[in-house]
Amino acid sequence: MQKITGDILIEKASALLSSGTVSCVLGWKKGEFGYDVTPAVFSSVEELERDFVYNDFCGANFSKYLVSKTRKLEGKILVFLKPCDTYSFNQLLSEHRFDREKVYAIGIPCEGMVDISKVKATVGEGISSIDTDGDNLLVSTLYDEEPVAVDFKSVLAERCINCKSKKHVAYDELLGEEGDVIENSRFDEVARIEALTPDERFAFWQNELSRCIRCNACRDACPACTCEKCVFDNPASGVENKSPANSFEEKLFHIIRAYHVAGRCTDCGECSRVCPQNIPLHLLNRKFIKDMNEFYGEYQAGEEVGMRAPLVSYTTEDLEPGEALTRRDTDA
Amino acid sequence: MRKCSLDKINLLFAEIAKNAVLYLPVDENDGSAVYKKWEDGTAYSNALNTVRSPKDFFFPQTENLMGFKTLGKTIEVIDTRVEPDDFVIFGVRACDVRSFDILDRVFLSEPVDSFYASRRNHGIIISMACTRPSETCFCKTFGIDPAEPQGDISAWKTETEVFFKSNTAKGENLLTALDGILEDCDNNEVDAQKAKINAVMNRLPLKNLTTDGFGGGKTAEIFDSPKWEELSESCLGCGTCTFVCPTCQCYDIKDFNTGTGVIRFRCWDSCMYSDFTKMAHGNNRNTQKERFRQRFMHKLVYYPENNEEIFSCVGCGRCLSKCPISMNIVKVMKEIGGNKGE
After folding, report:
1. B244-294, pLDDT tens digit by residue?
2. What ipTM does this complex have?
3. Where are the domains of chain B?
4. What does pTM read for this prediction?
5. Which residue of B has its CA nearest to A246?
6. What DSSP letter does each residue of A142-165 carry, written as one string?
7. Considering only residues 149 to 208 of chain A, which have any Cβ-Cβ distance to chain B shorter than 8 Å?
8. Residue A254 CB contacts under 8 Å (≥ 6 apart), including other chains
9. Mind telling me how many Å the CA of B256 is from chain A's nearest CA?
């Protein structure tokens, strides 16, 4: 559960709105069932007090919204950023995607966000409300007389189980205590897949990607995908498609996307969070990150503004072409 | 009313599968359910519903319409149509059964869509009453009763037995063919089941949601509502809601260059996409607000206006659970329609 409450954020946001420091606030709006919060722009203290919420389901990464929300903005927009969001924030600044002067960023601590599908897998359908009690979520359902206690840690989203940082790398103001970059196991699953035979690996991705419905949610939520007009949306491109023309093409979409965000992906995990088909898309990006770490030295996209990404900076220590293959064969 | 014990359900499936391809919801590793072809050993899922709706059986995401091949100076037109085998879909929920009626009004009205019609003719629907509706369910808002699912055959499941009632000649023929496995019975247990379902329906959080403020003739009143701006402001423009929706029916027709010819195929379109209904003169919906509004106006105003006040939402709740930003038709109905549903 979150150590910081929505009330503290509302108080902070209200003060900044009232003083004129910011003209609006990007935050989470409460929904019908507690877990279905929606990103929203708040323009008044009344709206904040009525609808603003911060709870264990505020997973959406707000960084990308700043591209569109700052475009015609008078004054500044207040944005609340969790540690992982700040990496995307910096990366977007490195790419000159929004005007830093138009943003007032408050770093907020995050204890990890809950994956509602894991809660449903535990208690079943029919959730009427969710409260917290110590390290447990108390889930009321239509079918249980008493709320069901669910261990918070057991229902964390995958990206939060493998959280890479509780440290904010960008903010104007920080609420709560600053955290640290954390040791994590996020490359374990990549290593497991790398160890498969090519046929097994192909079968793994074939199975995962065959479920893709080309809703484009992964792309549309991705803070690294900020092209004004995606090539896949452009009828003149010759590759535009709303659904795959064949089973080969549906795989290409995801692989092309992974290449395009290579070196820029901060591993925020939004792609997998939003996928309606639960395809572990983050694994493709993590494979690229893992390779780049091994080939060019440790690199975390978004750690600082203006960093030279490994794929766009040449050094004499760079891996020679073909060496990756040799290494792979040696490892095998 | 006929019934068979749950122990015999696989015998029943095997019998159905002798004469038709049988599809039913099956559990996936990630906890979701998906319609799959039944084979010996396939287990029927207890999930409330599948992520993808059964509209896919009649209106698949992609289908080839025709092909072309150039031979010198002539173009050969290739008929790529494949006549489907007879099939049975088992376990369709009441909401999804209604979605077929909604699609029928689009695809079976003149000019009849022969691809769709052919699949409808070859399919038999066995529905299943809902025993454990979700908080995201609001089928009652659209007059759908999950205790009385329609389709060719209605079914109810208890802890130990499955009950069947035919609604059409096609359904009756199938039940008759299953005589060796089914036995006749009275309505008592099914009535008890219905009472249980109705009791749950009265506890659902969205039980009081109404369609007030929507329907044919409401365009002028709500089209320019300032609330569309706010509702759509964080919409990502992805197609998730439209692709998991059992009633979304917009499609595009495209040509795919195979290198040696052309395949003309139809695929689902989404009003959320930037090139939706793009025409020679350009695009008539240039902002996400306009595209977002289109989806809800279509379901709640335009469709009922053209179809005897039938709404083209069935309250299945898929968009509620799948939208990446949790914006959905319920929030739209509450804001624009002004009913708080409480």
Report:
1. 999 999 999 988 888 888 999 999 999 999 889 888 888 889 999 999 999
2. 0.94
3. 2-64+84-201, 219-336
4. 0.94
5. B62
6. SS-SSPEEEEGGGGB-HHHHT--B
7. none
8. A209, A212, A218, A279, A281, A284
9. 7
